[in-house]
Amino acid sequence: MTTTWRLRFELSDSPGALARVTVRLAAADCNVLALHVMPVPGGVLDEIVVRAGEGVLPADLVDAVRTEGGKRVGITLADMRDLVDEPTAALRAARTAMADPSRTGEALRRVLAADSVTAGEAADGQVQLGEWVARRGWARFTEVELTRAQALLDLLEAPAPTLRAALLEDGAALVLRPGSPSDEDAVADLHSRCSMRTLFNRYHSGMRTLPRRWVHRLLAPPRGTAVLAQAGDKVVALGQLIHTATPECAEVSLLVEDAWQRRGVGATLLGALAADARAAGFTELVAWCLPSESALVRTAARAGLQATTRREDGLLRVSITPGTCAVKTPSAAAIAEKTR
């Protein structure tokens, strides 16, 4: 029966040293599956994952490494996750923790290849990372590993996207927030409440329903962001800000439910997108409209944004300068006071 092991050791920085270790392991009927070289103060640390032949003991592997000059040799059982490159493993661990914060300890253990990660205070031989304590008996933690683990914790502690409150002229209250894949049903419902004319003006094609794959792409565009306008428990408008091939230019688009049009929703949403564009360093927003459609120009004017137009490729190209927006966003307290 073969067993997979993970070995970590220090080796002299001389030509052929690591090759001699792998040759000796091969002579012991071991197959090297993965190799990592990690920088440490004063040199490097080598790590290999090997599948040992039948009857080969962990002590045999340690002796083989030490015979070729390996020092501080540590060994532990390995699994298939150890065959994944470290950046990929770290990204998968981050996804696990972000999807379920209760699995943060598990994610840290995977990033650190630790024996255990628990909440509490560190004792001798353990490492403290925020509220977490990491322990590993088979090898010391490297600074690279600890930095990677701390970066994971920093990512999880990043502040949630800020919700923005808006009060329309007729007293209706909106919340502007980033869209996410969890909003697919709400955005699909938004499209179902829009007329064919509204959908045609937005997508420039006739449709009665929006394909599900489009909904996901609207909420998680590959090169941009989506912002939703929500009233009560319904999403009533959707805006997108998409990076273009021109670094200082972003494409903007809006979709407002028919029942909420001409009430300032589009201007409020466009103002929020313009603020996001300014923060990202964009100096121009571009939108593409049908030649007969002038609603976006009026929306920009209502938002206090300068816009110019020109015909291009059979469409109306609207160029908007994301300068200081005249639309003001009230505080949540002001909204609560006016809506009592």
Describe this protein's structure.
Residues 174-323 form the N-acetyltransferase domain. InterPro entries: ACT-like_dom_sf, ACT_dom, Acyl_CoA_acyltransferase, Bact_Acetyltransf, GNAT_dom. This protein has 340 residues and is α+β, with helices and mostly antiparallel strands. The protein has 3 domains: 3-82, Alpha-Beta Plaits (2-Layer Sandwich); 84-156, no CATH class; 164-338, Aminopeptidase (3-Layer(aba) Sandwich), CATH 3.40.630.30. The protein has 11 helices and 15 strands. It has helices at residues 17-27, 58-67, 86-99, 104-112, 143-156, 184-192, 196-203, 212-219, 265-279, 295-302, 332-338, and strands spanning 3-10, 30-40, 43-52, 71-77, 116-119, 127-129, 132-135, 164-167, 173-178, 224-231, 234-243, 249-256, 284-289, 306-312, 315-321. The strands form 3 sheets. It has an 8-stranded mixed beta sheet with strand order 8-9-10-11-12-13-15-14, sandwiched between helices. Helix 3 (86-99) packs antiparallel against helix 4 (104-112). It is elongated and about 80 Å long. The N and C termini lie far apart (74 Å). The model is unreliable at 326-340 (pLDDT under 50).
